[in-house]
Design goal:
The structure holds 2 protein chains of 2 kinds. Chain A is mainly alpha-helical. Chain A has helices spanning 5-20, 41-55, 61-64, 70-81. By secondary structure, chain B is an alpha/beta fold. Chain B folds into 2 domains: 9-251, Thiolase/Chalcone synthase (Peroxisomal Thiolase, Chain A, domain 1, 3-Layer(aba) Sandwich), CATH 3.40.47; 263-414, Thiolase/Chalcone synthase (Peroxisomal Thiolase, Chain A, domain 1, 3-Layer(aba) Sandwich), CATH 3.40.47.10. In chain B, the strands form 3 sheets. A 10-stranded mixed sheet of chain B has the order 5-4-6-7-1-8-14-13-9-10, sandwiched between helices. In chain B, helix 11 packs across helix 12. The longest helix of chain B is centred in the first third of the chain and has 16 residues, at 77-92. Chain B is globular and about 60 Å long. The chains are: A mainly alpha, B alpha/beta. Chain A binds chain B through residues 18-21, 42, 45-46, 49, 52-53, and chain B through 68-70, 73, 130-131, 133-135, 138. Chain A: Pathway: Lipid metabolism; fatty acid biosynthesis. Chain A: Keywords: Cytoplasm, Fatty acid biosynthesis, Fatty acid metabolism, Lipid biosynthesis, Lipid metabolism, Phosphopantetheine, Phosphoprotein. Chain A: Belongs to the acyl carrier protein (ACP) family.
Chain lengths: 82, 416
């Protein structure tokens, strides 16, 4: 069953919070993973691994570099479910 | 006695998380009270895998009660323990102002991040390569605890992880001492850690017939020098000390616990696991530590023995002490603190050096518990059941740490 964009944002925020220690409400669509959330490449790959598990999607390595913001990731995951 | 080296090294901070307590004050008071950290494990490893041992000296305060969640996720338990101990030691030293280029980190583990290694293997087999976490390598590498401590404190003079099985923690402290003596650093945070209470290594130690099987009495299982000892009790945890050049400590008015006055190293080159029965390597290590400290036999009042509670190892060590000290061994107070803490493997040498520092500072040797019937071949006076006062005046304590592979490390601690 497909998740809505807001469900994906909520789930992604939980994953990011678990990995970084940031509060979930700091993880909003316009935030940049690197510039705002200070997430390094290893953490980003960990988040991707957990997001793939959680939402049942595949996020290829080539796509990860295009996911600059939280909103980009939500949008990609939403589309990849279809 | 005079220090052999031009730069004296003192101990200004202590930290630990052990089967006896989550910090040094709790651990030390439990040791003086003769408590055991061994307990029945809460798992099904015995039924599931047929592991013959159902107890261990597990960590008293779990890291997830102390560390923030992201650190738990990014560090193997061995690094978590080291970080907890290092932070306590650093605060205990008064968080010294020191140029990062003059600050070192030397934290050893005997086995490394084995939980991470084996979890990664399980994940690979069960769920495939894409589910193996990207942090796996930096978590499993044996230098991970040293690296994290270096990152935490900004230690740029060098971060090292010397590996010599159960001598690793003591060797780390000896190396930290050398870094100060040879001018590479003014302050070094050093110690050892281990987190090996996982079914695979327990099965492997059990296979080598080195573990106690006293499942019906965990607290009585680690009994060095008792005639009924039947092997060691696996433990986990970390201990870290802050070493500092005496000048640096004096300049900032630091509280000094003791002087780390000598280190002695040797290798048996005899057998991969058994100690040389003649103890030549052990004697050499202790002799070198005393010479390095500018001390002689009559100065030695206390030895924290390696004494793991194995049939052969315990007696080999006391024979070595007697061979080195002769009649001077009659006034040594010998403590086998693994009777209480279990065997922390790569953490053991650091924790027992920390105990030797506390013993010198407080002039109080910790007890050896569970010695109902001392082995008649025990050749050195043993501190049993109650702590025992050490004499006034200038005193020397030794910590002995020996490891599979024939590694021998002795450290000499003196009062200041």
């Amino acid at each position: 069953m497909a998740h809505t964009a807001s469900e994906i944002l909520e789930g992604l925020a939980e994953i990011v919070a678990e990995e970084t220690g940031l509060p979930t409400d700091a993880v909003v669509a316009e935030k940049s993973f690197t510039d705002d959330l200070d997430i390094d490449s290893l953490s980003m790959m960990t988040i991707v691994t957990h997001a793939e598990d959680k939402f049942g999607v595949r996020i290829p390595d080539d796509e990860v570099k295009n996911l600059a913001t939280v909103g980009d990731a939500v949008k990609y995951i939403e589309g990849a479910q279809a | 006695m005079t220090a052999a080296a031009s730069r004296e090294v003192v101990v200004t901070g202590l930290g630990a998380t052990t089967p006896l307590g989550g910090d040094v004050p709790t651990t030390w008071s439990a040791a003086l009270a003769g408590e055991s950290g061994a307990r029945t494990m809460e798992n099904d490893w015995s039924e599931k895998y047929g592991i013959p041992v159902t107890f261990a000296a597990t960590i008293k305060v779990k890291p997830d009660e102390v560390l923030p969640r992201p650190e738990i996720k990014r560090m193997d338990p061995s690094a978590q323990y080291a970080m907890i101990a290092a932070r306590e030691a650093w605060q205990d030293a008064g968080a010294p102002e020191v140029d990062g280029e003059r600050l070192g980190a030397v934290v050893s583990s005997g086995i490394g991040g084995i939980w991470t290694t084996l979890d990664g293997w399980d994940t690979l087999q069960e769920r495939g390569a894409r589910r193996v976490l990207p942090m796996t390598v930096p978590m499993l590498m044996p230098n991970s605890p040293a690296a994290y401590v270096s990152l935490e404190l900004g230690a740029q003079a060098g971060a090292h992880a010397l590996v010599s099985a159960c001598a690793s923690g003591a060797e780390a402290i000896g190396y930290g001492m050398d870094m100060i003596r040879n001018g590479r650093a003014d302050v070094v945070v050093c110690g050892g850690t281990e987190a090996t209470i996982h079914p695979m290594p327990i099965a492997a130690f059990a296979a080598s017939r080195t573990l106690s099987l006293r499942n019906d009495d965990p607290a009585g299982a680690s009994r060095p020098y008792d005639v009924d000892r039947d092997g060691f009790v696996i433990g986990e945890g970390a201990a870290v000390v802050v070493l500092e050049s005496a000048e640096h400590a004096a300049a900032r008015g630091a509280r000094v616990y003791a002087q780390l006055a000598g280190v002695g190293l040797s290798a048996d080159a005899y057998h991969i696991t058994s100690p040389d029965p003649e103890g030549k390597g052990q004697v050499s290590a202790m002799r070198r530590a005393l010479a390095d400290a500018g001390a002689t036999g009559p100065d030695v009042v206390h030895i924290n023995a390696h004494a793991t509670s194995t049939k052969v190892g315990d007696l080999t060590e006391t024979r070595s002490i007697r061979a080195l000290l002769g009649s001077d061994a009659d006034h040594v107070q010998l403590s086998a603190t693994k009777s209480m803490t279990g065997h922390l493997l790569g953490g053991a040498g650091a924790l027992e050096t920390l105990f030797a520092v506390k013993a010198v500072h407080e002039r109080l040797a910790p007890p050896t518990i569970n010695v109902a019937n001392p082995d008649p071949e025990l050749q050195v006076p043993l501190v049993r059941d109650q702590p025992s006062a050490l004499p006034d005046g200038d005193i020397v304590a030794l910590n002995n740490s020996f490891g599979f592979g024939g590694h021998n490390v002795a450290l000499a601690v003196t009062n200041v």
